[in-house]
Amino acid sequence: MDKMGIHFNVWIVLLSFVLAATVTYSALNLISQVSRSTGKIRRLWLISGACVLGCGIWAIHYVGIMASRFPAEVNYVPGGMSAMKIAAKIHYDSWIQAVAVTLLLVSSYIGLLMFHKFKECAGFQRWKLYSALFIGISVAGLHYTSVRASHFEYNNLLVSKPFIAETDIVLLIGVSLVALLMLAVSAGAVFLDRHVLERMAYQDPLTELPNRHGLERYFKDEFFGSRSGAVFIVDLDRFKSINDTLGHDIGDMLLQEVAVRLIRSVGDKGEIFRLGGDEFLIALPDCTLEGAQEEAGHIMHELKKFYPIQGNELYVTASVGISMTPLHGTDRSALMKAADTALYTSKDSGKNKCSVFDLEANRHQLRRMSLEKDLRKALARSEFMVVYQPKWDSYMNVTVGLEALLRWRHPEHGIISPAEFIPIAEETGLIVPITYWMLHDVCSQNRFWHKEEIASVPVSINMSARMFEDGSLYDVVAEALTCSELEPHFLELEITESIAMHNMKETVAQLSRLRMLGVRVSLDDFGTGFSSLGNLDEIPVNTLKIDQVFIRNSKMHSKKAIISNIIAIATHLNMEVVAEGVETPEQIELLKSLGCRVMQGYYYGRPMPVHELGEWFIANTAAS
């Protein structure tokens, strides 16, 4: 028996090291996509990377065998390591094998340690190359070290010839097929990424504009390369009504047309993204504030032109919010937040407007958002209270009614003005449950005053337009009266002119049922809205309230004439009149001379909480 080692073909050895580094780099390139993906796409990248790396290691092993010159004939059958047939016994040097494994572990650790430096980079990156070299060299090096540590014990009689050419060809064909498979997987994954997955991940399917993911990538890679730039958030006005009336299919077609007009308007000056719904973002690098305002005006002009869609001639306007970099922020989040705040200002000031972010508007928006959040919890936390302002009969010198007014005792900010929180409650719909609570509270309080013989007058409550939307106002009022055992004529509902004129037929129907129940109705702030005098006699109203704007300027001849005419109209329609905002004896005398006897204002009493109102009743009853 003789012992011999294995010799190597240097050129093939070098080829195997190059192959190892190339395979590892390809696998890392695929795996680096994982952190940028989610769900099934994430698993696809992992499987692709594992397939390339696994096949690559197999190919490296057999290229290493091709580089080896065995002292005996070697034959192969399809399979793995056990498929090698050799007429010899193999012995291994344990210490060299241990060193080889140690070097493999160290090199692989160093290679993987570099991974965090390029894990989000899909393209070329030098740290990715370094990592591939470390891992590739360690894998190929393990093979050659292990083979070099092998010794063959063979019998001369069994060895007829060395490693034969036919074996090289078999291995070459196998390795070539595996290499082709790796290339196919890598090329397929790259094609899928570029033409399918990227489109799915970064493009809005409806408008074919870049979506939020595309927006993040654009800001990260491109936008902040310029000295200054503008960010627009464009939101369509009244888009919801089009969706609700004509359907979502028409709404989608409208969004597609809007996208086309935005692309045509912006051109190559910037990029357009769809944020979702009817909201778009436009990024204009290298843009001044004056240029941004001019561009916004051009966009708004283009968008408000009519849209011929499926036989419909649609009209929409757009509101725009603008932020500038670096003035309003130096990152995507800050710029979008600033533009969104400016957009809210445009919406809040009447829509179809363009606003540039400013710090005061931001403070206002932040406070509003904070109040809205706290308002949702205020009812459950019993933070609301009702105050009452007297209505005084100037002829009889007695209280003839009270107006219930809502107040919010905020735990941190104290008393919040109704002018600040009522619009928020209206917009969010929170005014409905708040009004339900107020109806029950006021009716119960009024019934208590009757029982205790403190007062026996009707109390009025302001109604929101939201209370008329679902047609349940009658049931809500009837329930509050039943629970409190209050007689209906001691409750008065105050509505504004805008409520009376909006969906007038339905509003009149609901008010008529309440009038038949015995509940009183008054028309608040008369003369300041948009009511038609031709329809006034059709509205079931007991009382007209003259707005304080006329009383405050009652010295003016024009205002005095308006007051006189309102009183005359009420008299001819058999309605009562209440003058609001009365503060001076001169105003009282003028109103009395014009025929108005019931007045309300600071002269007679400020809005008071329940405990103060009891004392006020006692004092004014004694005085009268």
Summary?
The chain is an alpha/beta fold and 624 residues long.
Question: What would the keywords be for this entry?
Answer:
elongated; eight-stranded mixed barrel; 21 helices; single chain; GGDEF_dom; alpha/beta; membrane; disordered N terminus; Alpha-Beta Plaits; 624 residues
How would you portray this structure in words?
The chain has 624 residues and is of the alpha/beta class. It has three domains: 2-200, no CATH class; 212-357, Reverse transcriptase/Diguanylate cyclase domain (Alpha-Beta Plaits, 2-Layer Sandwich), CATH 3.30.70; 375-623, EAL domain (TIM Barrel). The protein contains 21 helices and 23 strands. Helix 2 (39-66) packs across helix 4 (126-148), helix 2 packs antiparallel against helix 5 and helix 13 (431-451) runs parallel beside helix 14. The model is unreliable at 1-5 and 157-167 (pLDDT under 50).
**Category from helices, strands and their pairing:** alpha/beta
Residue share in β-strands: 15-25%
Q: How much helix, percentage-wise, in residues? A: 40-55%
Mean pLDDT level: 81
CATH class of the largest domain: Alpha Beta
- Assign an overall shape: elongated
Tally of contiguous helical segments: 21
Query: If strands are numbered along the chain, what order do they take across the biggest sheet?
Result: 15-16-18-19-20-21-22-23
CATH architecture of the largest domain, by name, is Alpha-Beta Barrel
How many domains, in number, for the residues? Answer: 3
CATH homologous superfamily title of the largest domain: EAL domain
Uncertain ranges: 1-5, 157-167
Reported for the largest beta sheet, the result is: 8 strands, mixed, barrel
**Cα separation of the termini:** 136 Å
